[in-house]
Structures are given as structure tokens and as C-alpha cells.
């Protein structure tokens, strides 16, 4: 079992992106998916960093893929999607309409924002050319086990969400803009103020969600450390870690020690708590319960 | 334009047909459809009877089988498609890739509509579903403006259906796990959103507090009307702001946009509300039928007085107006 780095869902400036991927080149991850996932309006601010990041990561021996947007509606977004193949890298489909631009027979990857809940859908995508699939975080491990059997029989790689705020929803509406009493078209790129999303709490102060432009994430960070043993057993071939603005390389190093038993889940969780005292953790989806629960307990009563 | 009306129960189906629905949509009483609530939906016998009733009055029946089949349990969904075909349904409304492929292969003559739960939001997505699975109609996600809908219709060969009234998802449908994050049960996996068995009401300090899976969704003063705690319509705090971060307690009313939607090339107008009473359904269907009839006759459509029927008493035209975003 190895590690895949998810596309960064947040709006980071070009210099920050440059440093992030330069550092990641030294991290023990097997592959990196990059590109703009959440909002096409952000891309002009950092797209010039993409070729350099690809080169750096490939030079460090990482496999690199480029993601589609999560929700493609505008004409220029369709064009952007059509152009992805031109980069010569595998395209990770995170909106099914990207398939329209991938000729039959061209291999592609599928990201966690595509709804794969069952055998038929998995098989259909494999027949269409999917070679690496990250399942939706919502899936319980019992379902993952069934799909992992098929993935192994079909000879494709299967990933599950391993770490990071869960991508819970995508919308036509920008919540960052709304919180600033602006519309999406006049957002003034305000989501750049929150490098890990803007937290949304309940009226009782319970920590709940985090908004990231048109995306809604969990406020708690998913951490599948406890489940790695079972995931490995059932044939899941990679854990997916989502970039965060602080301490990401260290966290990759810890997750890399889990599958071979060179670090215990408790030690990993301990390190996370020490490095990020405010980080709330969750792993409920794996257990088939509320996504927000952690180690079998609800976050709030 | 075709008016597609909700039927959560056989009584609502008859009310919709009697009130002038061109089509009704309904589902089976299990996890195969996205309104899997207690007391709603149809048995196999009820569906066959409902189809007979509708067909006798020239109306069509569309069966929603629009959740995502569970791994290892796909038989339930395959059965639902076969039974809908058997009952004489005019179309099935599907979202899952695998189920679309199954229906296209095993029931090629059964008309396939793409559910809003598939969130096909651009011509490439729609053309993909049309080419791959012979989908004949697409229910458009509620993330598009009228202008965008017109542009989509210029690039596709299949029909489009859009929501014009009722509950409003603010997220792209079929791509939202907020409900399961708080409760473990979601529209995609279980056909439910913010399910009632996870709702808890408490009276605290003169306020009615509504929780979902332990998370506070609303606090309303005692005596004030408290909306159902649907997660995305909740009141939350973010830094210095407290309010409806995602959407106010509003529902969709696009009745005034019907002429523009017609011009945009839309084939069918959909009314949300399979969980609503037959009296509600009858009233809304009559009102919208007056609009489509006027449009057909080239008359100015009547203004509708539907405000008090809207959830939370106020209405929005949602994403149809670009400023909503």
C-alpha cells in the first residue's frame, strides 16, 4: 500500500504552491494529482506553477496526474477540460463530463468525487479505461471490500480517502462570496484568505463544516489510521492524503510508516494532535456510521 | 410544455392527474428512490394501478430509481427497473452509471431519463449519457442560470426537464454527503436527506433547539414557527457572521420564469414535493397547468399566488438568476 496526494482543493498563491510541491518532492508519496479542482476562476493566479511542479515531482520519481474540475458548467471550463489531455499525463476525472473528452481506449484515473457505489459502475468505468480509482469517502469499508475484489480481478488500482477534510458537497453557489455578501461573479477571490477553508460552527459552538468557495468540507479531518490494516488486507492499494497548508510533509511521512507497521495508529494520531492541537479528527464513514464520528463515538452527543 | 408532478402516494398521483398533470413521477417504497421516507411511495400493485389511472386520462408515469445501488445488493435496483417496466411505466429516472448500463442492456425499450441526482450540468455530460446509455431526457441540476440552460439546449439532442417549484437543493444533487456526515444516512446511499429519526427537538432557555445527529441546526424562539432542520438550510456561525451560510429557509418558485424557460428550449417543468399532501399537489398542479395552458395559447401566463405553499413562506428563483450564486 502506498500514498497518493489529492489535488489541493484550496486557493493558495503561486509562491505557496511552488514551495508546497517542491517540499512534496522529498516526501514518501508514490504519486501526486494536481490541478484546479474547485473553482476555475482561481486558475490564472497559479497555473504557471503547474509545469514546474510536474517536472519537480517527476524528477523525484513520483507519478503525476492532472485533475478535472469537480463541477464543470461554463464554456471555458469545458475547454479547459478538453485541454487536459494535452499535458500528456493521466487525467483524473472528478466530473463525469470529462469522459466526453477522453477517447475510448485512453487510460484515465477516477477521483473521489465521482459516484462509484457498486460493482456495475466500477466495471463500466474500467471497461471505459479507468486504471486507478479513488472511491467516494462516504463508502463504508464493507462496500470497499466488495469493490476491492473486483478492482483486483480487473487489475486496476483502488484508493480510499486516508486523510484530510472530507469533500462533502459542491455547489453552483460560492459560500465564501456569500459570507462576504458578494455574488460568485464578483467574489474578489476572497477564498484566498482561508488556506484550509473557512470554518462554520453551529449556534452552540460545535465545530461542524468548513467552506471553500463552492465546496463544502468537513471541519474535522478524516484520519483512516485505525483502518489501514483492514484496508491493506482487502486489497486497497493506496491511501489518499489531501494537502493542507501546515505540516503536510511530516504527516505524509507518518502515514507512509503505517502500512508496514513501522508506526502504530495511536502514535500517528498522537503526532497529529501534537503538531495540530486544534485539529478535530473523524473516521465514521469507514465504520458505516456518521462521517463525523471518531473511533466509534459521535463528535457531539 | 409538459408538467411533471410529484406523487408520493397513490392518492397524490390521482390528485395530480385529476388536476391536469401531463406526467407524474413516483418511486417504490425502498432505498431505490431519493424520497425514501416512512409512509411514502408505492408498492408494485399500487404502481400498476396508478399507471392504469394515469394512462386512462392521457397522463404518463415516470418511476424514479435514482439512488446509487449498494455494492453487493444491486438486485434490489435491477428488480425495481424490471418491475417499473412490467407495470407499464412510461420511463424510469436513473442516476447511477451501472444501473443505466443495466437498464439499457436489459430493458432497451424502456425510456430512460437522467435523474437530477446525476448532476449533468453541461452539454458534454449530457451528450455522454445520451451516447453511452440512450438517455432521452435529462433533469438539469439546480446550479444553472436560464441563459446557461438555453446554451445547453443548443448543443444537445435530448430533452431537458427543469425544477420550477418546491424544495431546493443548494448543492449539486447527487454530490452531497452533508446528511451522512451528520447522521450516517445520505441521499445517494439511502435515499434520505436529514432523516427524521436523527432529529431531536429540545426546549432550552426559551428557545426551540433542533438538532440533527447531535449538531444544532436551528434555534427559534418558543412559539415562532420552526422549520424542519434540513442541514443546508440551517443557521450557523462563521467568524463574525451568524446566519444561513448556505441557504435561507426558502423554496424554489420559478413560475414567473416559465416563458423564458420555454424559450430556452426546456421540454418539461418539474414540481418537487413527493413528501407533500395530495391537497398541496392538487393546488400546485392546477396553478402551473394554468401557466402552461396560457403559454400554449399564446396568452400572458397568470401570476401565481403560491407564496404560502412555499416551505418557510418565502421563495427564490434560485440559480436561474445568476446573482443567486
Question: How would you characterize this protein structure?
Answer:
The complex is a heterodimer of chains A (301) and B (325). Chain A has 301 residues and is of the alpha/beta class. An eight-stranded parallel β-barrel of chain A has the order 1-2-3-4-5-6-7-11, surrounded by four helices. In chain A, 30% of the residues lie in helices and 22% in strands. Chain A is built from ten helices and twelve strands. Chain A starts with a strand and ends in a 19-residue tail after the last strand. The radius of gyration of chain A is 18 Å and the shape is globular. In chain A, helix 1 packs parallel to helix 3 (50-59) and helix 5 runs parallel beside helix 6. Chain A has one domain (2-167, 221-287): TIM Barrel, CATH 3.20.20.70. By secondary structure, chain B is an alpha/beta fold. Chain B folds into two domains: 2-168 and 250-324, Aldolase class I (TIM Barrel, Alpha-Beta Barrel), CATH 3.20.20.70; 178-243, no CATH class. Helices cover 31% and strands 22% of the residues of chain B. Chain B has ten helices and 16 strands. Chain B has helices spanning 10-18, 44-56, 75-86, 97-106, 123-133, 146-155, 178-183, 187-190, 258-263, 278-296; strands at 2-6, 23-26, 60-65, 91-94, 112-114, 137-139, 159-166, 171-176, 199-204, 207-212, 215-221, 236-238, 241-243, 251-253, 268-271, 315-316. Chain B has an eight-stranded parallel β-barrel with strand order 1-2-3-4-5-6-7-15, surrounded by six helices. A three-stranded antiparallel β-sheet of chain B has the order 9-10-11, with no helix packed on it. Chain B has a two-stranded antiparallel ribbon with strand order 12-13. In chain B, a hairpin with a 2-residue loop joins strand 12 (236-238) and strand 13. In chain B, helix 1 packs parallel to helix 2 and helix 1 (10-18) packs parallel to helix 10 (278-296). Chain B is globular. The chains are: A alpha/beta (301), B alpha/beta (325). At the A-B interface, helix 4, helix 5, helix 6, strand 7 and helix 7 of A face helix 4, helix 5, strand 8, helix 7 and strand 11 of B.
